[in-house]
Amino acid sequence: MKSEGSVIFEKIxxxxxxxxxxxxxxxxxxxxxxxxxxxxxxxxxxxxxxxxIYEETGSTLALNNVSxxxxxxxxxxxxxxxxxxxxxxxxxxNRLIDPTEGEILIDGEDIVGMSQEExxxxxxxxxxxxxxSFALLPHRTVLDNIAFGLEIQGIPADERHxxxxxxxxxxxxxGYGASMPxxxxxxxxxxxxxxxxxxxxxxxxLMDEAFSALDPxxxxxxxxxxxxxxxxxxxxxxxxxxxxxxxxxxxxxxxLMKDGAVVQIGTPEEILTNxxxxxxxxxxxxxxxxxxxxxxxxMRRPEPVAQCTAGPRVALHLMEEHDIQGIxxxxxxxxxxxxxxxxxxxxxxxxxxxxxxxxxxxxxxxAPDASxxxxxxxxxxxxxxxxxxxxTGRLRGVISRGAILAALARKGExxxxxx
Amino acid sequence: MQLPKLPVGEAVExxxxxxxxxxxxxxxxxxxxxxxxxxxxxxxxLIIPAxxxxxxxxxxxxxxxxxxxxxxxxxxxxxxxxxxxxxxDLAMLTLALVIVSTVLALxxxxxxxxxxxxxxxxxxALRPVLDLMQTMPSFVYLIPAVIFFGLGSVPGIxxxxxxxxxxxLRLTNLGIRQVPTELIExxxxxxxxxxxxxxxxxxxxxxxxxxxxVNQCIMLALSMTVxxxxxxxGGLGYRVLVGIQRVDIGMGFEAGLAIVIIAIILDxxxxxxxxxxxxx
Lengths: 419, 280
Prior knowledge:
Strand order of the largest sheet of chain A: 6-7-8-3-9-10
Number of strands of chain A: 16
Shape of chain A: globular
Helix content of chain A: 40-55%
Number of helices of chain B: 12
Largest sheet of chain B: none
CATH topology of the domain at 297-407 in chain A: CBS-domain
CATH superfamily of the domain at 297-407 in chain A: CBS-domain
Distance between the termini of chain A: 31 Å
Largest interface: A-B, 32 and 21 residues
Structural class of chain B: mainly alpha
Helix content of chain B: over 70%
Largest sheet of chain A: 6 strands, mixed
Number of strands of chain B: 0
Oligomer: heterodimer
CATH class of chain B: Mainly Alpha
CATH architecture of chain B: Orthogonal Bundle
């Protein structure tokens, strides 16, 4: 999950991952569609634009010197409008389309120079693909669709069906194995498409506008499930979309494409707050910041905190020292126990009560990846700041009303100043 | 002054002589093989008592049409009528001719259609040949058929194969070419060999279209039976021909009706052989 790496005081992000080898590395990739690619390339090298090349040769420069690297376990989004070359780029990675120039390394092996035999082996073992139109085989049952990859690899029927059944359960379609694709809804079809790609356990999933044909609600569910699957399985995902919200939600990094070239590569934050040029800026202008920013982006360090073994007197002392109205109570392992207010602490000290007597356990808690939109509605209803805890229950941060307003104001200004 | 007539006829005769001399063994072989096949098939169909075969046919229709009882009953009634009219033996000969011709036509047209779908030059080269085969009046290929194979059922089969082949070839070609691009991409993306792609994706997805071609092939083969009977192919077609020659309306109509009954039954069976899947 993307926010795991961006917890405020344990920043693990792409920088640490750079010691790893990139799993996909694209260098100087160019693709020309048309009769005379050599001539088009020559014109391109002499600095002509895509439009000029088209007028002169009738060839289209679909990809223009594209380079990027994708790290293992990363979700890398290729985003752009239709005709920007994103789907062509994706298809070059498994060579459904042959590049005109450039190299693509998968686990360090150049797929462009591979023989048919090596290419097949790489496609079978390392690359799974998911299509916008689902592309299920209409004459096969759901189970046989999912088992397709294994069947191609020559795995015996009972073994591949057992594996397919497992994956079918995993995508939430247990019991639909005997159905025909024509009987399923769009969302279910794409689950089958996802399952089909996962069954041969590839390292890399290539997703081509995978959710674009689904209606918005189902689309959001699928996005959530993909994030969930990604966290469990740790696949590397290269995801093509024209939808910025989707890109921001799913991507660890986003490559924004225009006219076959990459305009900017960066984390969703970087793309939003530091658009490299007017094109990127225009693209991101309409983004709703409350949906982009997550709890981990706006939370502050939860300090001070009171240990639950300490008494009310210690808590009172901490609050007075920091001039605050309440304090979070945690265990030694920083597991969140609750909250104590200043008034309760004063009374407890007077009457000699224990910490547990005055502990308020019914407090709002959110996960680090909760969106700002969700937090705002919580914080409006609650008299206390919102605690941010990860799924083990450890206190990660705290969000006050002021912090949210400050974050929104800051981002708003940045975006404004840039335009 | 009169121009001397060009020796076209003589040239053709010389060509035929030459073919007979050098390829006579091949023609004889084909001839023997086909005669054996048709004879064997007809014997097989006639060994089974008519009533048993009628029952089997109607059960087959019932199974293939996914329990369409009405159609199964009509099949039985239709075949009983053929039997009652005393046309059973002739009908079985016609059926044997149709089956052998169709199998031969499909054995050529489906593989060639698949090859044409994968190769634009082959497709371009085939198109005029197919046009010729479909538009040339069918009587015309009776002549070379008779020249090389004499009279009887064999030249009838050859002419029928030529006549019935084009739609099956064209529809196979079309069906494979119309397999959606994404499904081809699925096959490639999952690492299929060309053979796996053909057998597991292209042919199954194109199968409804290919079966439409098979259906047309059978119908054309049946419609050729009357014409083929002019060179001695026999069967119900010959009966129709005799009816025409004797201006015996009753006789011609009975035999014609029997052909129609067989045609409808074969049509329903082949149309339902492959379940239709909703695409996407």
